[in-house]
Design goal:
Layout lengths: L2 H5 L21 E3 L2 E3 L3 E3 L7 H11 L3 E5 L24 E5 L6 H14 L5 E4 L12 H13 L3 E6 L3 H10 L3 E4 L13 H13 L7 E3 L5 H10 L3 E4 L1 H4 L4 H21 L21
Parallel strand pairs: 3-4, 3-10, 4-5, 6-7, 7-8, 9-10
Antiparallel strand pairs: 1-2
Helix pairs in contact: 2-9, 3-4, 4-5, 5-6, 7-9
GO molecular function: thiazole synthase activity
Family: Belongs to the ThiG family.
EC number: 2.8.1.10
Length: about 290
């Protein structure tokens, strides 16, 4: 069974109907002090070369590009190819991330380095990992690092588990975006627990700090991205789903369309599910009987 059929089965029949969307009109994506039109956020890892990286990112239409500061040269090594040559900061919002950090202290230091390298840039993606096997977030260290970074003036977009309580605590703390995983990083399994994503969205909608909820990790194909957006997520962040595709640039195009289609479907409001058939043609005004 496909991922799409799995998530849109009758068991999940209410997941798409988070609220009455009939009167919604789209607004820009607001993250902290910044405003964006694209709701697709992309990474820079696993491409075969910088040319492919640049082509895929441009095709995706993304405005926010996340970069693993500990693994990628953005000026630390002047004699090496610089990633910023294909994702210039004047065109994209660079989102430094703390990939590869397994404790709060190393994540905090990495964000400090990013701010120095990017001339005071304070928007960061915090991820503190629990182990090498699952790359699941260590929420204890994530909470600690988030508090320290916020107090130091950073705008923190935070990768976390799909635990609704932890997600809301991070939002209430002052994170500018909460980014629950759809499934394990790089797994391509899609949204394995859409019920929890729904709870996170409901909590965010009822909170005084209505920060954007952005699915981060696990997307494998376009239908996964569309499902996340149909649920009401503000955006989707992905890397491997594009970079590991057989044709990354073509997949980037597909993901752009999927995010846009999912967003429009959410705003339009899906039809109600019914247990029986309902004829689509008029039931009155027959020309003959």
């Amino acid at each position: 069974m496909s991922q799409l059929n799995t998530h849109l089965s009758s068991a999940d029949s209410d997941l798409i109907q988070l609220s009455d969307s009939s009167s919604k009109s789209d607004q820009p994506l607001i993250i902290g002090s910044r405003q964006f039109n694209s709701r697709l956020l992309v990474g820079t890892g696993k491409y075969k070369d910088l040319a492919e990286t640049g082509a895929a990112i441009e095709t995706s239409g993304a405005e926010i590009v996340t970069v693993a500061i500990r693994r990628v040269n953005i000026g630390q090594n002047p004699d090496q190819p610089n990633l910023l040559s294909v994702i210039p900061p004047e065109k994209y919002t660079i989102l430094p991330n703390t990939a590869g950090c397994f404790d709060a202290d190393s994540a905090i230091r990495t964000c400090m380095l990013a701010r120095e390298l990017l001339d005071g840039h304070n928007l960061v993606k915090l991820e503190v990992l629990g182990d090498q096997k699952t790359l699941y977030p260590n929420v204890v260290h994530t909470l600690k690092a988030a508090r320290t970074l916020i107090d130091d003036g950073f705008e923190v977009m935070v990768y976390t588990s799909d635990d609704p309580i932890i997600a809301q605590e991070l939002a209430d703390m002052g994170c500018v975006a909460v980014m629950p995983l759809g499934s394990l990083i790089g797994s391509g399994l899609g949204l394995t627990n859409p019920h929890n994503i729904r709870l996170i969205l409901e909590n965010a909608a009822q909170s005084k700090n209505q920060v954007p909820i952005i699915v981060d990790a696990g997307v494998g194909t376009a239908s996964d991205a569309a499902i996340a957006m149909e649920l009401g997520c503000a955006g989707v962040l992905m890397n491997t789903a594009i970079a590991a595709a057989q044709q990354p640039v073509l997949m980037a195009s597909a993901m752009k369309k999927a995010v846009e289609a999912g967003r429009e479907a959410y705003l339009a409001g899906r039809m109600a599910r019914k247990p029986y058939a309902a004829a689509s043609s008029p039931e009155t005004g027959y020309f003959f009987k």
